[in-house]
Amino acid sequence: ICWTNSAKFEQPPSIFAKKDDSVTIKCSHDDNSLPVMLWYQQKNENTSMNFIGYCLTSGNPVKEEGFKERFDLKRDGDVKGDLIISKLVSSDSAVYYCHSYCASREQAYFGAGTKLTVLGKFNKFNQKNPDILVLDFRILRAFYCNKRVTLVCLAEDFYPDHIDLAWYIDDKEESTGVAKDDSAKLNTDSNTYSISSRLSIPFKKWNQGNTYKCKVTFHYPKEKSNDGKWTTESSTRWESLTAPKRKSLHFFTFHRW
């Protein structure tokens, strides 16, 4: 019988590991009435999740085809579980979600996900911070003849591929009209990545003297700790663009810091 109304999950937000290493992604929650723990893999934000398998509080795990050889699932009591991936390859880079429920018709609860980045030929000397640029801004005509302005924020020349982009209008985060590349693009010549995000807004909203900011947060491994795991650090940079208060787009101020 399930009596839960909600469950709080804990997963590490990010993990870095090298090719051929093994990694353990831990998950825990605060509700001992949820006996089933399932795991999913998502390659990028706009693709469906791949079901890896599930494990009960006792018994052997059940794994899907494609995840039977290098993937293992373990439980540690009612509220903890591990996803273990061995002999890592580049294609294992993804976000991994744990998920629990009591019965198939009951509400399901998900963790926030852990982003696993499998490093190639990496050392502390070739980790690169992104070069961030508001690349383009122009009036577009959308469907129904509504005038819109599109701003493009481009982050490039970074490695590894672990970066977040967000838009702000007058210091308030904006999610409406935002579209991001499905995944970062690899430049095979330099072994670095680039990614862009676009903010589309009505012309009237642009023409009010608002300040538009692109926030880029880059996550990267700093060094190995005593247990052999990479410690993670983050750096944040901003770009801002102030819209003109007149109806012409030819007057604006542009700031970098």
UniProtKB/TrEMBL annotation:
This protein's UniProt keywords: Disulfide bond, Immunity, Signal
Keyword Disulfide bond: yes
A Pfam family it matches: V-set
Transmembrane segments: none
A Gene Ontology term for the protein's cellular component: plasma membrane
InterPro entries cross-referenced by the UniProt entry: Ig-like_dom, Ig-like_dom_sf, Ig-like_fold, Ig_C1-set, Ig_sub, Ig_V-set, TCR_beta_variable
GO BP, one annotated term: immune system process
Highest rank taxon of the organism: Eukaryota
Domain Ig-like: 130-236
Name of the protein in question: Ig-like domain-containing protein
Source lineage: Eukaryota, Metazoa, Chordata, Craniata, Vertebrata
